[in-house]
Amino acid sequence: MGEGADGMNVGADEVAAAGGARGPRVELLGPLRALRDGTEIPLGPPKQRVVLAVLLLQEGRPISYGGLVEAVWGGAPPAHVRNLVQKYVSGLRRALGDGPELRWTGAGYRLTGVRADDLAERRRLVDEALAARRAGAVRRAVELARRAEELWRGEFVEGLRAPYLEAERLRWAEKRLTVLEGLLEGEITLGRAFEHLHELVRLVAAHPLRERLAELLMLALCRTGRSADALAVYEETRRRLTEAMGADPGPGLRSLHARVLRQDPALLPSPPVPAA
Length: 276
Prior knowledge:
Elements: H1 12-15, E1 25-27, E2 33-36, E3 39-40, H2 46-56, H3 65-73, H4 81-96, E4 101-105, E5 108-112, H5 117-134, H6 138-150, H7 163-189, H8 197-206, H9 211-223, H10 227-245, H11 251-261
Antiparallel strand pairs: 1-2, 2-3, 4-5
């Protein structure tokens, strides 16, 4: 739905390691958690959980000792950091049990036999949604994007604090918004503008400089017969952009504004698209 592949290398060969045993299900789209047979596994103290999240995001690639310390503690690690790293690695080995393998290689620490399952599922759903949209199957694309959105349980690795994870949290928040924009565009195309007006108002308030959201809100307002309100959204967005960035709206928003002014028939309310 406008995002493209996540770049997550999460094929079956990365999952089946250590003799082919399957590790626990691990999720990062919200508070980090690991489940075995539906039961949550205790993963230890916060910094140990951070180490696990960092290792999972390497997707089976080794990370050097220095790289791991930088990712977890930044430029000011504690004096006894080497002992802490060894302690947390040992703790994770015990917590993850059979299947996953966390070992030191010549290049660094490498975690195999377990993956971030929700990231893998999300990648598959987003890729399928993009393919459906390219094929003109808007309803199918919306369904797949909605399923991808439903995987989120909160912020990315919510509650864990580390320099590397803060950057990843911002990156994944952007990915989520991009998919959500594509999802809402599809819902409007299917004639469901009214049902998503409040959601769009909330998103525009939360991201006042994001022009694509303002554009979608304007489109939804037009499709519900509120073109005057759509023009008001444009003026408010233009004012915010000028005050915050000294810039005018981009071509997409300006083009839609011009279409609203000339009362483009394509923007008029339309009945919902019937189910296939």
